[in-house]
Every structure is written in C-alpha cells, then in structure tokens.
Amino acid sequence: MSVSPSPPPPVRSEPSCREMDAFCLRYAPRAPGHAAVRDLCRLLYVIPSEDREARDAWVERCIAWLREPRSASGLHEEEEPQPLAASRLKLLVRVLEGERATRLALSRLVGAICAEAHGLKLFAQVGLADHPGFLSELTDRVLQRLLPAPPDPERLSDLLLLFPKPEDVTWLESLPAGSLARLLAMVGEPPPPLPDPGMVFRAHLVDALALLATRTAALGLDEEVRDRSPGMAFRASPFLRLRRTCDGVLARNAAPDTLRELETAVADCRSVTDTVTQHLEQSGLSVKLVYRLDSIRGGLDRMESIARVLGASPGEARCREGLALILHLLRTAHEERSVRELAKTHLRLMARTTIERVGHSAEHPLISTRAEFHSMVHSASGGGLLAAITAALCLFLDKLAMAPFFTGLLSTFNYAGSFVLMQFLGFTLAARQPSMTAAMLAGAMGGKGPRPGRLERLEELIPCLTRSQLAALLGNLSCVLLASVGLTLLSHHATGQPLLAPDQAQAVIDSLHPWRSATLAWAALTGVLLWVASLASGWMENFFVYRRLPEALAHHRGLQRLLGDTGAHGLAGFMLRHVAGIGGGITLGVLLAVVPKVGSFFGLPLEVRHVTLSLGSLALAGGALGAQAVLTWGFLAALLGILGIAALNIGVSFALALTVALRARDISSQESWRLLRWVGLRLMKEPRSFLLPPPVPPAPAASGQPVSAPAQTEG
C-alpha cells in the first residue's frame, strides 16, 4: 500500500503572534503594542516580487501606512521625538537596516518595477502637454474625471496616481531628505539579473533631456517667435544650439562638462524668450503665441531641474534634487487633471491678449497739475454734452411705436454713434475710464518678484489716476446737467412743450429710485458691460497691431493712388490712434441697446443704468415736470440713485478690470492686498492728494522723466 505525500504547508500572509511580538519588542521596546509597528510588521511580512498587480497593491499599502496621521515617534530608547511626517519614514528605515531579508525583498520589488517601467512620459511630458483647444481639453479632463484611464504599469508616470490629492505635495515636502537617501541606498541594489534603479532612472532623465530639447527647440524656432526676436540670425539662435548641446549630453551620458554647456544654452534661450515677451507689448499678442512662450519656459525649467538632478553628488544632495523634481511633476500632474486650472490658464491667456493693449491704447493724461485737471474737465464736458443729446434721443425713441428690432437698431446707432463721435472729437466719458485705469495700475505693478522703485511709481500714479477720474466725472455730470436744461428750454421755446410728457418724466424719476426699483442692480450690470467694452477695445487694437494692419494701410497701393503716400500713412496713424476707441464705443453701444431687448425676449426685465445718461434723463424729466417736482422727495431720491449708479458703474468696472489685469500679469494676491492697504493708509493721511492736484507742479523724478502717461484721450 502506497503512502500519500503530506500536503504542503499553507502560505501565510500574516505573521504569527510570536513573530509579531518579537518584531515589536525589537523595534518598539517602549511601546510594543503601537499600531504603527504592528501594521508595519504585517506590511513587510510578505513583499511580492513576481505578480505585477500584487506589487502595485503593496506599494499603495506602503504609502498609505506612511501617510497615517498617527505619529510613530518615541518608540525606541535611543530615538528623539520626531515630526509626524518623518517618524514613520525613520521607523521604516530602522527596520530595513535590521532586517536583511526584508531589505533584499524590497530591493527585488523596486528592481522589478524599474525593469518594466518607462520614465520618458513622466519626466518629459507630464505638465508639458499640448492644449489643442479649450473645448477639446475640457472634454478630455471631464471624461478623465468621470472615467479614469486604466493603469499602465509600464509607465512610471502612473506612480503619480498614488498621490491623488494636492495635499500630498505638502506631505512629501515634509519628508527628510536624509532618511529618503538612506532608504534609496538600501533598496537601490537589487540582486542580478535585475537592473540598478539608479542607472535606470539616470537613463530615463537623459532621454527626457533629449526629448525636451527637441520639443523646446522646435517651439523656439517657430516663425512667430523668430519674427519677434529681430537682429538674430537663424544660425546664431540659442534654440538651435540647445538641440546640439543635448545631443552631446545624450552621447556622453550627461558628463559634468556637457551639463554646464546645457545650463548656458538654457539661460540663452530664456533670454531670447524674455526679449520676445517684451516685444509683444509693441507688436500685439495672440493666445497661441503666449501659450507657445509659456510652453518654452516650462520646457526650459524642466530641463534645468533634470540637469540639477544629474549633476548633484550621490547621496542626500541628489535625493533632495530628485525630490524637488518629483514634487514639481506632482504639482503639474494635478494641474493637468484640474478643470479649474484649465479655465484659469485660458482666462489668463485671453486676458493678456486684451489687457496688455488696454493700458497702451486708452491711456489718458495723468493729472499732476491744475492745468491738466482743467483740461480733463473740459474734455469731459464735451462728453457730457454729447451724452445729454444721446439721452434725449433715447427717450424720444422710446415714444415711437416700432417693432423691437428697429427700436434696438436705432438705439444701437444712437449709443454707438455718440461714443465713436466722442472718440473722434477727443472727448472723455468718465464711466469708461476705470477699466483703462486698472490696466495702467497693473502695468505699473509689473510682474512677479521684487522690482526696484515700484512703490515710488505707485505713490505718484495712484493719486494721478483718482484725480483724472474725478475730473472726468465732474466734467461729464456738470455739462450733461446744463445741456439737458438747455435742451428743455430750447424745446419750450421752439414748440411750447417740454421734450418729455409728464407721465414719461415721472416714469424716469421712479425708475431711478434707489430702493423702490432695481436701479442699483442695473447699475452693477452696466459696470459689467463697461468692462466688456474695455476688453473689446483692447482686443480690437491688439488684433489691429498683431496683424500689422497699420503697415498694410500705409503701403496699400490703392490708398496711395487715392490719398497719396502721405495721406495713406496719415490714415494708418489715424486708425491706430482711434481703433481701440472705435471698437470699444461700438461694443458698448451694442451692449447698452441689445441687452434690454434680449432680456425681454427671454422674459427677463433687464435694463441698463449709465451714470451720465441717467443724469441726463433725470434732468430732462425735471425740466418737463417743473421746479416744484425737483424739490420733491422722489426726485431727491432719484438723485441719490444717480450717486449709487456712479459708484457701481465705476466700482464694478474697475474691480473686474483690475482682477483680470492682475491675473494677466501674474501678480500675487499678497502684493495686491499690500498695495490696497498702502492706498488706505495714504488716503487717511493725505485725502486731498487723491482729489485735487497740488498748486505747484511736483519736481521731476530722479531719472529726469516726469511721472505721466502719453497724453492720449479716450472716448
């Protein structure tokens, strides 16, 4: 009779009680029952090396153990208290130093992962992907959020998915580089035939450098970039040298001298990129070009980070540089998956294409003398005169029995024609100034980082801007009031009747009541429309300059035959001076006329409240009802509503424009609040300087240049 063989012993996935107690007493004698030690014993008991899914699951469990919020400090007699993030990492390092078999098993796991994975996407593509368009990229990110792609173990970039939250970056930053270096040294030598992880990662980094150099050089040698870096021959372009330098880095496996040459080439490429960015303010911007420049900077920054890792000495220094690179990759990976970051990026790019030109196209004189103050008042008085006529025509059109389409069309011609005529005549409309003021203020603040003399420039600029706004407002309101009274008297003299019927005049007064009507809400809406019109003016001039339309007009053969060479150049200069005002005026006119009609089409009682036009309508209504009606509480409340309209028109438009301008110029919120606090202190200390210019002109600046902007008015 044959004897059946004995069954094999069962494969255990948990340590026995005796093994658990021995482990805890050895590595946590002061607290052998600590949960962190017992969980670590279970984690290290079985370390897989063959099955790929088992390896991935074990790595997730290990990171989850490291992320536990409970500290593992003070478990050993010789150990000093440790921070929360470092305590578990140091416990793991101490255990691996004492357990040779566990250390070898973990080395085999790391070697198996490195042997199968590819790191080119991780180091050369994460955070640097092309965005073909907002809608397509938005669709991809939403689908990725709803239905994530399956993991691909052959790509090291999937390891970033082990840190799904932005808070993980803060946790990784808190890990001590010394403990990480000791951990990598212990698990970085797997037994043959597994490859050395250090050499594998070095090869991935060198390959990523070559790919980044090829991509960045192609972007830097594009025609749009070359056209905006004049005076540089193609053969002398540092982007061309960048490609050749990285070929040398790849051929010599990142030798120290090749890395130094690479750093020099990257610095030269960054200098060209900065020159092109400065040139954009004169030659116009496009979203595509601005994004291309951002991509070039991102590629250069990534190449510098990789070069620092390759050039660092082995040990803690290299571990520190490698951790900085991983943190950067993790941040950009979170941004790539974020819909909010996508919207912020595209809004910033769109803002730059408009707000950069707003500060150039619509600069008005910065008032620093009494003569400039009076000149602004006179310019705004002309705007008030045209606004009074516009308000009278608007009320006249309301009395006509026409279809809504024709009423809206005539209202558009009325508004837009008035605003464009103001631009041609050099008049000023106060409610359109805040958006331009915000763009100039953000331009004076500049970009990121410290800039010498910034506060001194702002100390001179801000009071000049507030005086300009006050002078324009005074000129507009005073003249629109007088012109409306004059139109009423002229109507009485010509026809014996006022311009408005009594019921229409009373309806105007009631519509401007600050709390019995929605006039303040409509004033805020009008502030938004004023801001949109300012964006349109900036976009219009940017389009005009970027497409080089002034040069096209000046050298157009048909215009030269018709107007002569001097006339063609004069027309080009005229259009360059006024294209922003024309675009903004037409846009504002269309918005003021169309928005109420569109609202009524959808059943929404939308209206607009422009401060100058509203005061003109109120003055016409007062002239129609007589002096007794002007002294009633309803009329006085309507005057109070005019003040609210002025505050909301200017405040909403300025706030939106300043927010977009600061975002376009990458100015931090901390610096913005610092400026706001300084303005508040200066206003409390010297309120008069914000309202009226000093009686004596201020002394010129140290550079010999007066603090003022080009004397160019806007409509």
Automatic annotation (TrEMBL):
Transmembrane helix as UniProt keyword: yes
Membrane in keyword set: yes
InterPro entries: Site-sp_rcmbase
Chain intervals with Low complexity compositional bias: 701-715
Transmembrane segments: 376-397, 409-431, 470-490, 520-540, 579-599, 611-631, 637-662
Keywords: Membrane, Transmembrane, Transmembrane helix
Region annotated Disordered, chain positions: 694-715
Protein's name according to its UniProt entry: Adventurous gliding motility protein
Species per Swiss-Prot/TrEMBL record: Stigmatella aurantiaca (strain DW4/3-1)
